[in-house]
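User: Sorry, what's this?
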Amino acid sequence: MYYVIQDSEKYPLSILHEDQYFQWYNPLKKDHRVEFRGSMNQCYSYISRRERRQQPPII
């Protein structure tokens, strides 16, 4: 299982394996937000879909 993590609005999203996630973050603290959980490919797909939605339209 992999996690897509949002630390703050000014940093990009991070993808971490669950072992790394539990080493770096305490799930009970509210210092981060888990955006998505899934396989590595699902996490990359989630990030690419999210980035496409946030791009401003080309005029």
Q: What stands out?
A: Residues 40-54 form the longest helix (15 residues). The chain has one domain: 2-54.
